[in-house]
Amino acid sequence: MAMQYYTYSSFRSPQSVPAQQQQKRLSKKLFIVLAIIVAIILIALHLSSQSAKAIDTHPQLAKAITSIIKANPSISIGVALIDLGSDDTSFTYGQTTAFTAASTTKVLTAAAFLRDVEQGTYRLTMPLGVSTAGWQLQEMVNQSDNDSWDMLMGQLGTASLESYAHQLGLASYNPDNNTITPLDEARLLQKLYQHQLLNTADTNLLLSYMQNTNDETLIPAALPVGATVYHKYGELLDDDDDDAGNFVHDAAIISYQGKQFVLTIYTNKLDDLDITTRQQIIHDITGVVVKAETMS
Predict the structure, then answer these.
(1) pTM of the model
(2) CATH code: domain of residue 143
């Protein structure tokens, strides 16, 4: 009878196969964990670098704006800045409470009316005053016509306009005395520019009315060549109430050297409109903001 020989060198117990598989799985898990840790570290370093730029820039900006505000103690100044390229980070300087907004809130009236047009409540071609609602809208924003504003406000009603503003998160807006904070005005322009208020056609229409207006002497006059600006200024000389003040404001969306930001500057002086001084303040603040934004 032939002898049978068995070789035991390659024999593996049933338990050895799962043990090797478990070791491979463990190694794979460790590799994945290490890869995740490395990715987190790289992201943290990137964010730290970006944060360092903001830390380096905005304290310097705050110092520069505060210096301008302190140099004009007889004038109440409120500044709001929203950086549209940095998670919409916002900054405020000076007075943060509500101002009489003058004509800057005409943008809110325009957005509310265009929203109602989109919903079918009104038509831009419908008769209003001596022309159409669309013509009155353009006159209100581009030429800052108060008669046009009154007619459009009459169509909307103050209760509806206040409700619309509060739905947008602009809690400081009060249509009865036309007050709003500089930051809420800036947020309104941010939402407009980011197409959060209107469809593309109506957004572009309203922005076009905010260019080449009948007064380009405030923020636009302080911008460097090549900057794009959409803005709404406001000037109000209050002869009826000495305690109310005299207001010169501008609120703008600015695009320059690949950076986009919203800048609102409100100024109030109780006893004197003093346009020349207000223009210089607005020019000085605009200059330091543009410099800071393009450096960050």
Answers:
(1) 0.80
(2) 3.40.710.10
Q: What is the DSSP string of 158-172?
A: HHHHHHHHHHTT-TT
Tokens 């005409």 correspond to 106
Average pLDDT over residues 175-184: 97
99-116: pLDDT as tens digits: 999 999 999 999 999 999
Q: pLDDT at position 241, please?
A: 54
Q: Is 4 part of any domain?
A: no
> Would you say residue 206 has pLDDT above 70?
yes
CB 145 within 8 A of CB 129: no
19 occurs within a structural domain: no
Q: Average model confidence (pLDDT) for the chain? A: 87
Say if 251 falls within a structural domain: yes
Tokens coding 129: 């005053």
DSSP single-letter state for residue 243: T
Rounded Cα distance between 218 and 220, Å, is 6
Going by C-beta distance under 8 Å and a sequence separation of 6 or more, which residues neighbour residue 208?
none
**Mean pLDDT value across residues 143-147:** 98
Residue labelled with tokens 């705050």:
62
160: closest CA among 99, 100, 105, 109?
A: 109
> Which domain, by its residues, includes 248?
60-295
Contacts of 99 (CB under 8 A, 6+ apart): 76, 78, 179, 180, 181, 182, 247, 249, 266, 268
